[in-house]
Amino acid sequence: GQLIFMNTTDNLPVISGINGLISYSKHVCADSLVSFIIKTTDIDAIDNTHLSWNGGIPSGIFTTTNTHRDTGHFYWQTTMLDYRLEPYTFTVFVNDSACPNPGVNSRVFRVYVDSCAFTSVLENDQGFLSASAYYSVSDQLLYLKYKLNQPLQSTFSLYDIAGRELKNISVPKQSEYIGSVDVSAFAPGLYFLNVKYGSWVFKKPEDNC
Asked: Looking at the domain assignment, is residue 5 inside a domain?
């Protein structure tokens, strides 16, 4: 009889980018839900693949399908407090079932949490001392806050990009205002917020930013 020894080379498993594409980074709005899938491939059709992660974003959730070609699903409900310039990162690992030495690979994913907010400060004899506004993805409200240098009646309006007025709200005579506008009926896109003595650009993002 004969013993035949064969050297075989295992092809390493591969981790896809976000939602099976090539990008490993994503920008989202603070106070929104991050949700995407991560796929695996392996040239060696017989090998199974298995995903895991390092828990790099503690409040995130990572689940897998535990199928022949394992697929991961990452969830993270961000808050306004998660906004920062630096990305949040986590590492995903994949190994295959090659014997005796499984192939392993890894990828780093980056999530940038943007404010999706806008702030302006204006000063003049009859205008604002300060003003700010931001859009909350979770409740689809546009929050507006401003302070005047004297009690005045003010009006603010929302316009679409074609210049059509969509909202018009009058505020009684007062020196400070804190309020919100329901914009849940608005389609994602670019809008203009106009307040007496000043204006801002308001962009309502897609649900996934």
From this structure: no
CA nearest to 163, candidates 194, 132, 142: 194
Q: Which two tokens stand for residue 159?
A: 């316009």
Please list, in sequence order, all residues whose beta carbon lies within 8 angstroms of the beta carbon of residue 95, skipping any fewer than 6 positions away.
13, 49, 50, 102, 103, 104, 105
Percentage of the chain modeled with pLDDT above 90 = 40
What Cα–Cα distance (Å) separates residue 106 from each residue in 59, 83, 166?
A: 21, 26, 48
Tell me how far apart the alpha carbons of residues 80 and 98 are, in angstroms, rounded to a whole number.
Answer: 44
Residues 102-106 have a mean pLDDT of: 96
Has residue 30 been placed in a domain? yes
pTM above 0.85?
no
Give Cα 204 distance to the centre of its chain. 13
- CATH code for the domain in which residue 169 is found: 2.60.40.3080
